[in-house]
Amino acid sequence: MSIKIDKSLHPQLQQAIQRYCREEIDTDIGELQAAFMLDFVLREIGPHIYNQAIRDAQNHLAQQVEALPEYCFEVTTSYWHKKK
Fold first, then answer.
1. CA–CA–CA angle 37, 53, 59 (5° rounding)
2. CA distance 41 to 3
């Protein structure tokens, strides 16, 4: 599965890459170079980030499922305990 982002985001992300290069590593890159960098990040780094996000979501959901009995089940045969 490849990471796909909305094409309308590409110019904004490319500009962010250009700004990062200019401000953080004192290198000016053009739009084409930024587009290549974005493509590389999406293909090479994106899947690692995506997979970690899926693992995090799975762990969170598993914790929520484990907690369900606390919230879903009612105490049974409690009528006579209240009468005391």
1. 165
2. 10
The tokens describing 28, both together, are 């000016």
Residue 25: φ, ψ to 5° = -125, 15
Residue 84, pLDDT > 60, answer no
Tokens of 23: 């401000």
Provide the H-helix boundaries in the chain: 10-24, 31-40, 46-72, 79-82
pLDDT, tens digit (0-9, with 9 covering 90-100), for 3-19: 889 999 999 999 999 99
Candidates 2, 5, 33, 6; CA nearest to 17 is 33
Token look-up 């005391």 returns 84
pTM of the model: 0.71
